[in-house]
Design goal:
By secondary structure, the chain is of the alpha/beta class. 46% of the residues lie in helices and 14% in strands. The chain is built from 11 helices and 13 strands. Strand 1, helix 1 and strand 2 form a beta-alpha-beta unit. The N and C termini lie far apart (49 Å).
Amino acid sequence: MNRNAKIYVAGHQGLAGSALVRRLRAAGYGNLLVRTHGELDLTSQNEVKEFFSREHPEYVFLAAAKVGGILANSTYPADFICQNLLLQTQVIHEAYKAGVKRLLFLGSSCIYPRHAPQPMKEECLLAGPLEPTNRAYAVAKIAGIEMCWSYNRQHGTRFLAVMPSNLYGPGDHYDLHDSHVIPALIRKMHEAKVNGVNQVVVWGTGSPRREFVLSDDAASACVFLMNLSNEEMDAILVAGHSLPMVNIGCGEDSTVREVAELIADVVGFTGELVFDASKPDGTPRKLLDINRLTKLGWKSSTGLRDGLIITYRDFLARQTLTEDVGSVSTSAN
């Protein structure tokens, strides 16, 4: 990608999208297109069509999505499948019509079968039943992968899908009900420490294994892939044995219990962790096979502990900002 190329990052305020913007700007890309939901509703066919017709981006990072943890996915499956299908369909189709040179679609490791062989290769897609707690979201993401593949075959586009493992990092959503495990536990343990509570409840048995990659590392991988030569890119896109997709991960996983204990140490929570086995565990294990990515020349550089320290600092900074805004609002009233 030329440093002056017009690049559209869809979902720039989210966890993955904000990391992509940071990475692109740090690498010298200064012609970035970003729009808030209020400025551009990606589920609206007319708005997306008008945006691409007017702006003509050369490259697109499709990081916009409705995301959430087990509770959110279980509670709002219709929202997850409908909103994700709508927005990705509009963006992928209009990117093709506008002649976008390359598009990168961010999927999720949840697209793989619940009991897929570990580590999960790209070829595992559609090889078995999905995890029930996030099936609606996974089906939407699988449809996005299929769209990329279909447009490549029929129209000669270069649309690539990437499957990151569980993302965490600066800009995460620290909601206790709708967020993923790391941001939710960071908030839980911080509030318990501040309020002198000596017990924190963690959903599930703590035995499932998860692979976590810092959002900034994942963004680095995405920019790396978008800068592959045409020959390297086409070797992935036209491979007859699999869909045009690449796993992004760090190659290591941990149990939820181990992650919770590490978060407690980083946050400084010294109380008891109680695992509620009445709550769902989700998929037993989700470790990605990242050989395809490492053979291309990229690997993750941030360990889990260091990444959690970065994320907790971000959480504290956001807490301070919220408190400052609240105090200003109170004074104004």
